[in-house]
Amino acid sequence: MKNSGHKNSCALPELLSPAGDAERLEAAVRFGANAVYLAGKEFGMRSASPNFSREGLAQAVEYAHKNGVKVHLTCNTLAHNGELQRLPDFFTYAQSVGTDAFIIADVGIMRMAQKYAPKVKIHVSTQAGVVNYETAKAFYELGASRVVLARELRLDEIAEIRAKTPKQLELEAFVHGSMCVSFSGRCLLSSYLTGRDANRGECAQPCRWKYALMEETRPGQYMPIYENETGSYILNSKDLCMVNHLPELARAGITSFKIEGRAKSSYYTAVTANAYRHAIDAIPLAPSPLPSWIPEELEKISHREYSTGFYFGGEPGQVYGTGGYVRKYEVIAVCTHCADGTAVLSQRNRFYDGDTADVLEPGKKPYMLRLSGITDENGEPVASANHAQMNICLKTERPVAEGAIFRKKLE
Question: What is the value of pTM for the model shown?
Fold first, then answer.
C-alpha cells in the first residue's frame, strides 16, 4: 500500500517515526510516516529493541522505498576503540542496500561514514548536543545535511539557529515521547548503578526507579525526598507531546518532526504516526483548532504525564508519584483482511460478542464498531475471543482496512 503521508511532503515538515523491528516499521509506513529511523544489531542507542539484521535491513529499505518512505540508520552510540574495526563494513553494507541517511553523534565516526559510504547523507544525532547556530554551521561545513537539535532548546532559540544557518541544512527535533533527565540523553546513571552504558545503547533506565533518603546514623530508616508516603521518583521525566503546537514548530524552522520510541510497541508506532500525520496535514489550516480526536488519540497509548518539554521555556518536570505509565486502552484485535462483508480479526486481548470496539484504520479518524455475531473460522458462533492470536470472523457492512487496530477502553 502506497504511503498516504507523502501527498504534502514537499510543503510540510517530515514525519519521522521509530521502527524497532519489521512489525513496527510496517506500522509506521502504513499509518503515515514520511521516514523511519531504525538500527542494525550494533551501534544503535536502543539495544533493547529487536532491531535489524543485515538481511532485515535490506528488506526494510526495500519495503520502505517501495512505499515512498526514507530510512535513517542510527549509528549514534559512542564507539570505543575496539569497535572501530567493524564500522567500515557496517557503513559499506548500509550504503549497498540503499540506506538514505546515518544518524551519528561522533565526529570521528562521521568521517568514517563519509569515507566508506559517501552516498549516504549524514544526520547529526541529538546526542551531539547542538544548541547554537555556530555548532550547527560547523557540522554542515563538515558535510552533515541535517542536525537533530538538543531537546533543551526553546522555540525562539531554534528560530535563531534557523535564521543563522544555511537554508540547505535541515533541522530535526523531537515532538513526542519519553524524555531523559540528562542533557540530550547523555546519561551516566545507568553505567554507575548497573554497569550498563546508556551511551552505548544499554540504558537500564534508573531514572524511572523509586528513590528515598537514608540518614547515616539511622540505617534502614528511609525518608521520602518528595512528600509521598511511597518514596520519590524525582528523576522520572514527563513525556513530550507537541501535537497541539506543530504550526509553531514549523514557523521556527524545524523541517523534520521526530517521534521517540524504537523500544515501544507497533501499536504505539501506529497511533502516534496517524495522529501526527493528521496534525501535520492540518498545519496549513492554522490557526483553526486541531480536531479534538487527534490529541485524544495520544491518550489511548501508554504514556507518562505529558508536557511541552523545553520549547516554551522552563523545564518539563518530573512525575513524582509513580515510575509507571498511564494506560487507558488495550488492543483487542488487528484486522488481517476483509472481503465479502466479513472481516477477519487476529485476537490480541480477550473480547466478547457484543463488545464495542474503537477502530483505528490507516489514515483515518477512528470510529466505533459493535462486535456482534462473531464466529470462529468455521462459522461457529463464539461468546468470546479468549485465545492468543485466534482468528475471529466479524460480519460487517462497513469494510475494514487491512491492518486496522481494534481497541477497548479499560474499565
Answer: 0.86
